[in-house]
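dITP/XTP pyrophosphatase, Candidatus Nesterenkonia stercoripullorum. Tokens?
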Amino acid sequence: MSGSAASPGARIVLATRNPGKLREFRKLLSEAPGMQGFDLETAVVDAASAGCPDIPETGVTFTENALLKAREVSRWTGLPAVADDSGLAVDVLGGAPGIFSARWAGAKASDEANLQLLLQQLADIEAKHRGADFVCVAALVTPAGAELTAEGRLRGTLLKEPRGEEGFGYDPILQPDGESRSVAELSMAEKNEISHRGLAFAELSGGIVKVMLNDDAKRSGKAPEDHGDGDHEGSGVGEPGVDPAETSVEAAGEYEGGALFPHSKNFDPDSANLRPEDEDSADS
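Tokens:
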């Protein structure tokens, strides 16, 4: 049963209580074709303002956590939901902190505590061995059961001291490859161009735009316009009558990067299926 407290103008819920993520998400959407007519401050809300309960991240991968959060928020609110799971994967730690990045120093640890613990653990590691990736998997789930995921990565080197005031989390200690600044020293626009979260949400943006335009058309009684990008080919999963929860994660692994790319016309926001244009498109 829906327990949503979202405002009547809300069109999509971002499954986060992190104001930094909400700001980044609204900024990314504001630059997407078709979004200029929306008041994104009203249309895009976070889980807290929608009255959603905390959702435990019980998955063992970024993809599992992103999907379980998006599914639960969509079920709770009756609105399309977007969620992500992201973290820092450090080479010499075998990919850790990984899915535990937000609680590396404990379940209720602050960003500063997590960052300082990691710096202590890497104190004696030389720069050439301090390689790491920011990793993000973003997921879109609609009340009809359609599901999309996309992954983004940002490669860099971990600094020995925090630098910069922008961003959050581990941003002050990752220096992206080819950059002289930390992620926290970049402007939001610069960060969105290269960040793991920016890349993942950019991959997902075509599907998000289509969902919002479709909803807007329904509310106004007009036929939805086609804003698909014909230069991108979509991938199909699922058959009528198949529970998307049983197909989406497994099917995602069959496509490039383990992600489904929703920019094309193939994404039907009213269906639990992603419809291939033909048999060959799903393999390309």
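Strands lie at 12-14, 44-46, 81-90, 131-141, 147-158, 174-176.
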